[in-house]
Amino acid sequence: MMCAITGIFGEKIGVKLHEMLLSLKHRGPDMSGVYVDGTLSYGKIDELEIPQGQMGLGHNSLLIDGSDGIQPLKEGNIIVTCDSEIYNYKALCDELEQSFDYDFKTDSDSEIVLALITQYYDGYLPNCIPHIINRLDGDYAFAAYDEKNLVVVRDPLGVKPIYYGSNDDYFGFASERKALWNVGIDETCSLPPNHMLHNQELVPLKNQFFMEKNFFKGKFFKNKGDLENILKESLIKSVEKRVNGLERVGIPFSGGVDSTLLVVLCNDLGVETELYAVGSEGSPDLNFAMKVAEHMGLPIHIRVVDEELVRNYTPLVLNAIEEWNLMKLGVGMTAYLAAEMAHENGLNVLLSGQGADELFAGYHRYLDFYTKTGINVQENLKKDVKNLYHVNLERDEKVTMAHSVELRVPYLDLHFVNIAMNTPLKYKIDGSNDHLRKCILRKMAKDLGVPQDIVKRPKKAAQYGSGIHKILTKKILKDGIYMQGLKNSLNFIDI
Length: 495
Fold this sequence. Notes:
This protein has 495 residues and is an alpha+beta fold. It folds into two domains: 2-204, Glutamine Phosphoribosylpyrophosphate, subunit 1, domain 1, CATH 3.60.20; 218-485, HUPs (Rossmann fold, 3-Layer(aba) Sandwich), CATH 3.40.50. The protein contains 20 helices and 18 strands. The chain has helices at 14-23, 89-100, 111-120, 129-135, 177-181, 224-243, 257-268, 284-296, 307-321, 326-344, 356-360, 364-371, 377-386, 388-401, 414-421, 439-448, 452-455, 462-465, 468-476, 480-489, and strands at 2-9, 31-36, 39-43, 55-62, 73-75, 78-86, 138-145, 150-154, 163-166, 171-174, 188-190, 195-198, 201-204, 248-252, 272-280, 300-305, 349-351, 406-408. The strands form four sheets. The protein has a seven-stranded antiparallel sheet with strand order 3-2-4-1-10-9-11. The chain has a six-stranded antiparallel sheet with strand order 5-6-7-8-12-13, covered by helices on one side. The protein has a three-stranded parallel sheet with strand order 14-15-16, sandwiched between helices. The longest helix is centred in the middle third of the chain and has 20 residues, at 224-243.
């Protein structure tokens, strides 16, 4: 279930909380709920009456698989609002029902967060959080309140966005910055992964990255072939978790090895897969995407971009990503248009190849680091993976959710990340002349059935492969009148 979460503290917050939820209606158009000073209310956001008060939590739901999406959830004095995909939800439910006789009231995976809090609660809410994040397998952002303390938590990789900030009158948090901006909180921060916001204090949590230092000892790892099999098994399980219960799934598709491998795995799992390709006429991404789709006999939906389209969509994409950044604009527009097509086709879940380049040294800069003595490439990879949340993940999640479409990222399954980060660099870059890089991932792709010309296709960033960056830099940014109008219409973004 994909959704929006919000919270605000101050005087007479009812109207402000309603404004926050309205600004995030695209993230959860199906149902809304609020908790204000002890009172729970549910309904459609346009009709929901929110009482005034001093403390409020809000939630908008986008129902993916028919689950019960009513939130906030309450058990005793504990209130939870959650934006989550918890992949071990069923196993945890069975455990809590059998061992602790917990009575689940919904079939939403978000209720597992509330159930775990009640299991570990000792009267001081922050003490629960380390236990809970060690149990959860998935992507999430949640807030919990026990009438004394507030905690806001984000998944270890930062797949789900959450922001917070304050002014002289209010403190608030929300899934997107615009909800805070709309109530006058101009200065906002992104909650870093592996941190908890306790009331208004940022508290570090135990790092869950790269913790499997002994993973490859003994029977687990004897040679490159064994390692490749371990990676294959982990990635297949990751994709399987993310398509479980879905009959159809979409993939933003450039014809690159990362997205093509996801297509192959979805097909092998028997999930109906549709491809969404975006690019200018004759662009490399469109050409490769159409070629692969024909080869695999899969439906492909194409959006050809030109200068007029880029002009029209630039303010829409900027409004979604909430910042002026040329790279994010170019990449974000491809995902924005893919999500728009998916929504029009009745799909609400897309799978992305995000993270593969950072895990397996896909970008050319890693080869540059490799050829320079004294630069630790593996440490650079780790740094980039840790920073993915504000470089790529927030951008991609927000542009797809602008169309009420959830983005899932199989390469960023925590178990797969830890294996990839413990993979020796020599299996990622095969010497100073390796201009393809991602050696072991390409070998996996070949073995699993990705066409050879795609396995050998060089990496090309989405903004370049789609042709959008060229249109932006050669045409759009040089149009002073257009740019001035853009600044005026999006005065909340520093352009």
